[in-house]
């Protein structure tokens, strides 16, 4: 390697051996193959992000490859249908959809795909009861697995998505079991101010 800098070597590896992979930046500037997303986290508005970030953060903690974006059943109906129709072919295995108010997003997505769709009712001007009912009350034939209102629902949607994947993915199952163990230990270690 005389006369070859480390940077030049890394660049050569990037350009030759792994040229076909998509890469993300990392602290060492080495190529890292990106996994294809298995779970999509969709929300009806950017204003839903503070809630839905709990789903993304939980998926990241469990090492589940995911993607997140805004799509609206009402404001972008064509793009929403197009996303849902193409989701399975793109390799997605579970879709999480959060929306508030007249929350039709999860139901509309479910109407266009056979993939499991998990609905998160966003806390709304009516405390999320409108979101909960409009997400949960699907007609027989097109299911939406509806979680709790707000942050707990977003977090649990991610955990449920991981559990669905874990039935056929040992790595996710181990991460999920470790998450549960850690959670139990934290509860048992809790000390009350007496
Ligand atoms: C829904 O309307 C969204 O999911 C959001 O919860 C709610 C309000 O949206 P913005 O007016 O804040 O964009 O479609």
- Attached small molecules: 5-O-phosphono-beta-D-ribofuranose
Q: Strand count, sense and closure of the main sheet?
A: 5 strands, parallel
- H/E topology pattern: HEHEHEHEHEHH
The percentage of residues in β strands lies in 5-15%
The gross shape turns out to be globular
Nearest-angstrom radius of gyration? 20 Å
Helix-strand makeup class: alpha/beta
Give the terminus-to-terminus CA distance. 65 Å
Share of helical residues: 40-55%
Question: How is the largest sheet built, in terms of strand order?
Answer: 2-1-3-4-5
- Which ranges are low-confidence, i.e. pLDDT below 50, for 5 or more consecutive residues? 9-32
Give the mean pLDDT: 88
Provide a count of the helices. 7
The total beta strand count reads: 5
How would you describe this protein?
- Helices cover 43% and strands 12% of the residues.
- The protein is α/β, with parallel strands linked by helices.
- Strands 2-1-3-4-5 form a five-stranded parallel β-sheet, sandwiched between helices.
- Helix 4 links the parallel strand 3 and strand 4.
- About 12% of the residues have low confidence.
- The structure holds 5-O-phosphono-beta-D-ribofuranose.
- 5-O-phosphono-beta-D-ribofuranose binds next to loops.
């Amino acid at each position: 390697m005389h006369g070859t800098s480390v940077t030049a070597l890394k660049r050569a590896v990037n350009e030759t051996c792994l040229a076909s992979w998509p890469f993300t930046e990392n602290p060492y500037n080495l190529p890292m193959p990106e996994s294809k997303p298995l779970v999509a986290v969709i929300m009806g508005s950017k204003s839903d992000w503070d809630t839905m970030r709990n789903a993304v953060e939980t998926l990241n903690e469990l090492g589940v490859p995911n993607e997140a974006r805004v799509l609206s059943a009402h404001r972008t109906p064509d793009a929403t249908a197009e996303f849902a129709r193409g989701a399975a072919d793109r390799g997605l295995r579970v879709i999480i959809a959060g929306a508030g108010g007249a929350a039709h997003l999860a139901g509309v997505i479910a109407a266009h795909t056979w993939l499991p769709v998990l609905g998160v009712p966003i806390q709304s001007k009516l405390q999320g009861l409108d979101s909960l009912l409009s997400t949960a009350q699907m007609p027989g034939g097109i299911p939406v697995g509806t979680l709790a209102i707000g942050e707990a629902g977003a977090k649990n949607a991610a955990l449920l998505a991981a559990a669905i994947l874990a039935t056929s993915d040992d790595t996710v199952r181990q991460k999920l079991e470790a998450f549960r163990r850690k959670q139990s230990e934290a509860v048992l270690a809790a000390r009350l101010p007496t």
